[in-house]
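Researcher: We plan to redesign the surface later, but first we want a full-length starting point. C-alpha cells attached.
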C-alpha cells in the first residue's frame, strides 16, 4: 500500500543519495503511475548506486584496467603432434558421449538492444541465411534439432532475453511453433536491467514515471540463469555443461565435441574459443593471463604498443581474439551464485533518450550519458581452470552486428556461402568461382543436411551440379 509515510521516506532516501529529481513529476502522476515509480525506486540499491557513480560513471573507463597481463597458451585448431592428436581424438569421443547422454545444454544470449543492426525487433529474428532467408533463431533451432537426431539426444535450449524484447521473443517462438522443437525443451528467460545515468551521476528518466534502464550486459546471464530457474531445470535434466554463444553469430557450431571434450578432459570450469586476430587493433577482446588467470582485455583497453608487439615468428604477442563462445559448467554458475559473486561493471557512453526537467522527451544527437553492463568473460578469472581452443573464423564466426560494413549483414551472408562452398569442395564438389576467388553462386546448407564438413561426403548423391549464378539450397 502506498502511504504518505512511504512517499515521505522515499523522498528522504532520494535526497540522501542525490537522486530526488526522480520525483520531479510526482504531482502530475496518477495512482498507478505513482505506484509503478515507487516500485522501480524500491528495487534500486542506493548505496550500491552511489558506489557505481563514484567508481564507474564519473571515472574514465581506462582507470579500472591493470596493465601487467601476458600472453596465454591455447589449443591449436589441429593437433600439433602425435601425442596431442591422441588427446584430440579422446576429446572428440568424450564430447560426443557427453552430447549423446544429454549432458550439454545450448544457451544463447539474446537480450541485447541490437542498436547497431538497426533492425525492428529482436536480433534473433533477423533473416540472415543467403538463399532461404532463415532467421538466426531458425538456424539455431535447426542445428539443435539436427544434433538431437545425430546423437539420439534431447538437447535443451536456453534463450536469454531482456525486458526490452522478452514478450516479442516469446511471440516469435510461439508463432513459429518453436521452429519444430518441443516447447518443453526451450526455456526462455529474462536478464536484469541497470539504470542509465547522466554524466554527473543522476539516474535518467525515460518517462515521467519510468526510470531509464538497459539490460545488465551478457555478464548478467550468469545471475539470470540462476534467478530464472534455468540452472535448476538443467540440473533436473542432468545437463552439466552449458554451450554459450551470442545471438548474432550466424556460423555458430553449438555442439562441438572437440571443444566440449577438451574442456571436460582438462577439468575446466569455463572455457573459450578464440580466433587469431585479423589485425593488431581488431575490435575483439584479447585473451591474456593476469595473475595467472585467463582473462579477456577489451580491445579498447589494450595499450597500442602491446597490441602491435610481435613474437620472433611474426605472430602478434596478443593474437587470440575472443569470439564469445564458451563452455561453462553448470556447477560453476551455481557456485558463483551461492557464493555471492559480482562481475565488474563496464561503462559505455551512449546516446540515451530521456525526459528533461520540463517533462519533454529529448532524443540526443550526441552521447549524453552512461550505461553500465557486465561481461560474461569477466567470469573467466573466477574459474578454477579455463582452456582456450583456437578455431578458424571462416568456420565458426560470422557476426551480424551492423547493418553494413565490417561485421555487417552482407559480410555474414558471404561467410555463410563461403563456408558452404568450402565444405562442398572439400568433398570433391565443383563450385564456380569469380575472378576474386569468391563463390559465383549462392549456397545454403541446412543444418539437417550437414552439421560439419565431414557430413557432406555421405550426401554427394543429393548435390546437383552447380553453375554460375545458381542458388543452391541443400536440405
Ligand atoms: P553486443 O555487445 O553486440 O550488443 O552483444 P547488442 O546489444 O546485441 O548490440 P548493440 O551493441 O546495441 O549494437 C553481444 C551479445 O550479447 C547479448 C546480445 O544479445 C548479443 O547476443 N547481450 C548483450 C545480452 O544478451 N544482454 C545484454 O545486456 C547485452
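Model: Full-length starting sequence:
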Amino acid at each position: 500500500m502506498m502511504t504518505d509515510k512511504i512517499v515521505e521516506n522515499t523522498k528522504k532516501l532520494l535526497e540522501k543519495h542525490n537522486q530526488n529529481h526522480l520525483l520531479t513529476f510526482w504531482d502530475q502522476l496518477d495512482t498507478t503511475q505513482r505506484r509503478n515509480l515507487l516500485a522501480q525506486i524500491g528495487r534500486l540499491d542506493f548505496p550500491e548506486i552511489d558506489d557505481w557513480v563514484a567508481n564507474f560513471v564519473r571515472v574514465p573507463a581506462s582507470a579500472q584496467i591493470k596493465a601487467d597481463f601476458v600472453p596465454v597458451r591455447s589449443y591449436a585448431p589441429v593437433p600439433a603432434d602425435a601425442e596431442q592428436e591422441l588427446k584430440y581424438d579422446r576429446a572428440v569421443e568424450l564430447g560426443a558421449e557427453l552430447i549423446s547422454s544429454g549432458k550439454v545444454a545450448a544457451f544463447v544470449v539474446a537480450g541485447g538492444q541490437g542498436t547497431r543492426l538497426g533492425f525492428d525487433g529482436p536480433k534473433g529474428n533477423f533473416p540472415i541465411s543467403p538463399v532461404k532467408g532463415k532467421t538466426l533463431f531458425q538456424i539455431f533451432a535447426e542445428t539443435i534439432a539436427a544434433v538431437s537426431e545425430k546423437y539420439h539426444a534431447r538437447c535443451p535450449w536456453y534463450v536469454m532475453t531482456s525486458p526490452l524484447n522478452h514478450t516479442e521473443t516469446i511471440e516469435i517462438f510461439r508463432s513459429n511453433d518453436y521452429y519444430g522443437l518441443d516447447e518443453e525443451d526451450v526455456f526462455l528467460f529474462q536478464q536484469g536491467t541497470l539504470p542509465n545515468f547522466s554524466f554527473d551521476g543522476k539516474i535518467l528518466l525515460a518517462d515521467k514515471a519510468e526510470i531509464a534502464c538497459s539490460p545488465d550486459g551478457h555478464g548478467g546471464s550468469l545471475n539470470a540463469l540462476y534467478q530464472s530457474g534455468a540452472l535448476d531445470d538443467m540440473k533436473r535434466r542432468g545437463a552439466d555443461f552449458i554451450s554459450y554463444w551470442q545471438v548474432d553469430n550466424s556460423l555458430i557450431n553449438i555442439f562441438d565435441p572437440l571443444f566440449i571434450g577438451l574442456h571436460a578432459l582438462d577439468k575446466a570450469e569455463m572455457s573459450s574459443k578464440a580466433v587469431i586476430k585479423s589485425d593488431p587493433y581488431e575490435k575483439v577482446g584479447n585473451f591474456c593471463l593476469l595473475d595467472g588467470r585467463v582473462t579477456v582485455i577489451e580491445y579498447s583497453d589494450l595499450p597500442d604498443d602491446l597490441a602491435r608487439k610481435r613474437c620472433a615468428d611474426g605472430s602478434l604477442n596478443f593474437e587470440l581474439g575472443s569470439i564469445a563462445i564458451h563452455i561453462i559448467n553448470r556447477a560453476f554458475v551455481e557456485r558463483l551464485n551461492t557464493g555471492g559473486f559480482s562481475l565488474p561493471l563496464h561503462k559505455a557512453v551512449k546516446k540515451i533518450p530521456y525526459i528533461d526537467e520540463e517533462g519533454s522527451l529529448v532524443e540526443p544527437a550526441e552521447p549524453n550519458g552512461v550505461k553500465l553492463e557486465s561481461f560474461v568473460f569477466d567470469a573467466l578469472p573466477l574459474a578454477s581452470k579455463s582452456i582456450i581452443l583456437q578455431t578458424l573464423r571462416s568456420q565458426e564466426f560470422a557476426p551480424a552486428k551492423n547493418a553494413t560494413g565490417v561485421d555487417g549483414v552482407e559480410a555474414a551472408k558471404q561467410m555463410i556461402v563461403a563456408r558452404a562452398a568450402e565444405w562442398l569442395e572439400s568433398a570433391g564438389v565443383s563450385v564456380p568461382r569469380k575472378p576474386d576467388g569468391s563463390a559465383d553462386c549462392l549456397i545454403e546448407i541446412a543444418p539437417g543436411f550437414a552439421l560439419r564438413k565431414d557430413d557432406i561426403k555421405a550426401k554427394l548423391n543429393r548435390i546437383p551440379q552447380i553453375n554460375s549464378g545458381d542458388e543452391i539450397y541443400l536440405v
